[in-house]
Amino acid sequence: MSRPALLQLSEHGLYCAAGDFHIDPWGSVPRAVITHAHSDHLRAGSAAYLTSREGERLLRACVSGGRVKALPYGEVIDVNGVHVSLHPSGHILGAAQVRVEHHGEVWVVTGDYKTDPDPTCAPFEPLRCHTLITESTFGLPIYRWPAPQQVIDDIHAWWRANQETGKVSVILGYALGKSQRLIASLDPTLGPIYTHGAIERVNAVYRASGVVLPPTQYVSSATERQRRDWSRAMVIAPPSAKATPWLRKFGDTSTAIASGWMRVRGARRRRAVDRGFVMSDHVDWPALMRVVHDSGAQRVLVTHGYNDVVVRWLQEQGLDAHSVETRFEGEGLEGLEGLEHSTEDDDGVAGETGSL
Hints:
The chain is α/β, with parallel strands linked by helices. It folds into two domains: 8-142 and 282-353, Ribonuclease Z/Hydroxyacylglutathione hydrolase-like (Metallo-beta-lactamase, Chain A); 148-277, Rossmann fold, CATH 3.40.50.10890. It has helices spanning 56-62, 148-164, 178-185, 197-208, 224-228, 245-248, 267-270, 285-295, 307-316; strands at residues 8-10, 13-16, 21-23, 31-33, 48-52, 67-71, 76-79, 82-88, 96-102, 105-109, 131-136, 168-172, 193-195, 217-218, 234-237, 253-258, 275-277, 299-305, 320-323, 352-353. The strands form three sheets. It has a seven-stranded mixed sheet with strand order 1-2-3-4-5-6-20, covered by helices on one side. The protein has a seven-stranded mixed sheet with strand order 7-8-9-10-11-18-19, covered by helices on one side. A six-stranded parallel sheet has the order 14-13-15-12-16-17. Strand 7 and strand 8 (82-88) form a beta hairpin. The longest helix has 17 residues, at 148-164. It is globular, with a radius of gyration of 21 Å. The protein starts with 7 loop residues before the first strand and ends with a strand.
């Protein structure tokens, strides 16, 4: 008689019955293995959390309570007889794929991931497995990312052009992950870099975790003299700051969004911004197909995104592929996440240490 699937969907999400733990649960559970700190993957209320060592500070800043165990990338632990290890997914700081092995059967849960280089996190690590559970946020052939350095060069050129016309450059990007990637890639000799409070709080966690970022200044801490002339500045803000009084304080601005959705014609116009820079922390179509191929998996479960399109394509390639409905959201433009809040004064509360 065949054994039940190593991972199954329960009312709280992906569940490993053999090990009695959940991966990125969307409810309170006894044991939670966390891929990364975005709020659609990390929920408060669980009794114990397992995260990567690189992501420990972010997890503690986002949730209070619960025991926290931080595992170095690649180290294997035994959870009730199931071998579990975390491996870099390249998504944001501390983001991990979860490798689960039991009786010789290997499953990998990618979480959110990308294969493009990112100066703020460990690069994606290809993993071999029998069953792969992959995201498909940008699972359409139209989504193909330009070279990251070309995007940064375009941003620098736009910044210089705005300075020449006396406009303040404002880029909207997720407070956790996207903004730090942008900041780490900018040339600080072009001008001062100012940040929204939600982003500056995350910057502090990244710096405390050992990530090197250029100097940034929290907008509200600017001196009166600095506030009289923002024209050389680059301002990094979350999407939630769009069309708010906070943004109007800068006067004449040129606004942009950094997102994979900017690959589609009309997305910039619908968001009412001047520029759209194609920069995503998720895989594009070619990278997604390459990861599936390199995994060697004969069974692929596809979640959050254009999963039906990806499943159909993989089935045509001869793979046993199926769609899995979860509550993960992928990359949006409007939602709040992680440490991104509308207020400017909240603090993270550290959880209690312990073992999973």
